[in-house]
Each structure stands twice: as structure tokens, then as C-alpha cells.
């Protein structure tokens, strides 16, 4: 853990905070738009919000990886320091994508949906029943 690694981790933390906040904004907008009353409606709203972030997040990850992978394979002057900066970024960007697209929406659903009722079950069958 030298200065280069700490620099890469600092950059990664900033990137993840920024993209995580954007994900929360999309989830909030989908929640307000859907106005869920049951947990099933809440799940649909969260999925609708998260789906809108798949392409932008994947484009961000692909761009960062396209820029950092050559740094990891470099051998020129200063490559040893740059590799220490790039290595945590490469691993962290992949982890960040998984967190943002899978874990954050699930946690959001648990957090916002905990007060909602489970939902309305199937309608009872009343045909042929006499009272």
C-alpha cells in the first residue's frame, strides 16, 4: 500500500460515489413516478429505475477499462507507479458496476419497501359458491 495505490483508491471512491448518487436519483424518480402501494409495485418501480442505468454504467466501465488496461500492460518509464494507480481502479470499477446494478437497487427496495403491505393476493373464486 503505497501512495500510488492510495491515489487509485481515492479516485475510485469519487467515481463510485458519483455514479451511486446518480443511481439513487434514478431510483427516487422511478419511485415517485410509480407511487407504489404494495411491495410488488415497489419492486417494479425499482427495476424500472435501475434498468435505465445499465447502459450508462456499462459505458462508463468500458471506457475506464479501455483507458486503464494498457496502463497495466505498459513497461516504459514510470510504469511501475502507474500500475499501482491503475490496479485498484480496474478491480474497483468492476466491483462498482456489480454493486450499483445489483446491490444498490436491492438495498433501496428493502429500505423503501419495508413499510408497504405485501400486496393483494389473487381474487377469491366465488363462482358456484352459495351463501
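Q: What amino acid sequence fits the structure above?
A:
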Amino acid at each position: 500500500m503505497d501512495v500510488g495505490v492510495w491515489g487509485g483508491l481515492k479516485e475510485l471512491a469519487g467515481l463510485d460515489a458519483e455514479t451511486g448518487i446518480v443511481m439513487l436519483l434514478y431510483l427516487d424518480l422511478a419511485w415517485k413516478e410509480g407511487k407504489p402501494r404494495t411491495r410488488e409495485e415497489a419492486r417494479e418501480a425499482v427495476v424500472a429505475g435501475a434498468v435505465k442505468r445499465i447502459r450508462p454504467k456499462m459505458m462508463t466501465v468500458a471506457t475506464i477499462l479501455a483507458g486503464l488496461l494498457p496502463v497495466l500492460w505498459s513497461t516504459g518509464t514510470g510504469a511501475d507507479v502507474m500500475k499501482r494507480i491503475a490496479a485498484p481502479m480496474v478491480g474497483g470499477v468492476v466491483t462498482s458496476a456489480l454493486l450499483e446494478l445489483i446491490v444498490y437497487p436491492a438495498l433501496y427496495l428493502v429500505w423503501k419497501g419495508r413499510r408497504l403491505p405485501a400486496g393483494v393476493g389473487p381474487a377469491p373464486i366465488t363462482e358456484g359458491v352459495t351463501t
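Q: And what stands out in the fold?
A: The two ends are 76 Å apart (CA to CA).
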